[in-house]
Write a structure and sequence with these properties.
The protein is of the alpha/beta class. 43% of the residues lie in helices and 11% in strands. The radius of gyration is 17 Å and the shape is globular.
Length: 306
């Protein structure tokens, strides 16, 4: 069996070409992975849109309705930073559905990856930082509410703190939020994750990897989660437009391999979500995000052989 990969064409809707958010990166990532032989287009698992009642496990029903109908107030539109369209609204609920499907695949097979996801800045009743609905919090709440997991750990290695996830899950002791992020960065006002590991600007591969290893070596035995949600942001890359850390391609590959290996080595299912990444060279950015899936495919192949 091949590594389960989740994708839908809705993930790259029509979008202003000069916008800071690289909406086409999801489609380009699919093209990159298919060209690299990780899957044929027909093998990619296509998710359904996330039902509104599942979104409402983590978000205000009125907010969901306002966003889906295009009636966000101007202040919320400014916080979000994305121009509303019906296609973007459809993309948003489809992407959360994709993360849910990837999580269910991970529980079934041990490992799965989404070609989107990681929208960790979205809050209960407002968007923020290009994030509308928080798929990490929705997955955690869904798995706990349905009894599919008794304890969920979010390993967030995006450059930015997962402030939305931290606040949405603050009162849910069975959902553990762990954020390794650049200390001087968006958001200016940090939330309180269960575990925050603020990292100094300019940190390179070796020191970063030690932080990842130390964190997981301590927290995975401590909590023994039933599943790990891994937010594999590549905005930690040295060439990222919004990045202040200094990781190389090899450093990101080592990070992804380490996180997946820590989990699977303890028989903990793990789902990979791509998180943030920004570069005017969209093809290079898609390849950078693809490091997660290539790393996962190698770990998967070794596990199948072992």
């Amino acid at each position: 069996m091949r590594l389960p990969l989740v994708y839908h064409d809705d993930c790259s809707p029509p979008f202003p070409a000069d916008h800071r958010f690289p909406m086409e990166k999801f489609r380009l990532l699919r093209d990159h992975l298919v060209a690299g032989g990780l899957a044929s287009d027909g093998e990619l698992l296509r998710p359904e849109p996330c039902p509104q009642e599942v979104l409402a496990l983590a978000h205000c029903p009125d907010y969901i309705e306002r966003y889906m109908s295009g009636e966000l107030p101007r202040e919320d539109q400014r916080r979000l930073g994305l121009p509303w369209s019906a296609a973007l609204a459809q993309r948003t609920v489809r992407a959360v559905g994709g993360s849910l499907l990837a999580a269910e695949q991970a529980l079934q097979h041990g490992l799965a990856c989404h070609l989107a996801g990681g929208t960790h800045h979205a809050h209960y009743d407002f968007p923020s930082g290009f994030c509308i609905f928080n798929d990490l919090a929705v997955i955690a709440r869904y798995l706990l509410e349905t009894g599919k997991a008794q304890r969920v750990l979010i390993s967030d290695c995006d450059l930015h703190q997962g402030d939305g996830s931290a606040r949405l899950l603050a009162d849910i002791p069975q959902a553990i939020t762990v954020s390794l992020h650049c200390e001087k960065n968006f958001p200016a006002r940090k939330a309180a994750s269960d575990w925050d590991i603020p990292l100094p600007m300019g940190m390179g591969d070796a020191a970063y990897l030690k932080a990842v290893d130390d964190t997981l070596n301590y927290l995975l035995p401590l909590y023994q989660p039933d599943i790990v949600l891994y937010n594999a942001g590549v905005d930690v890359h040295q060439n990222d437009a919004l990045g202040y850390l200094n990781l190389t391609d090899a450093g990101i590959a080592a990070r992804d391999t380490a996180v997946l290996g820590h989990c699977l080595g303890r028989d903990i299912p793990v789902v990979g979500l791509i998180g943030g990444g920004y570069d005017k060279d969209r093809v290079a950015l898609a390849c950078r995000h693809g490091i997660l899936h290539h790393s996962a495919a190698k770990v998967w192949a070794e596990r199948q052989l072992g």
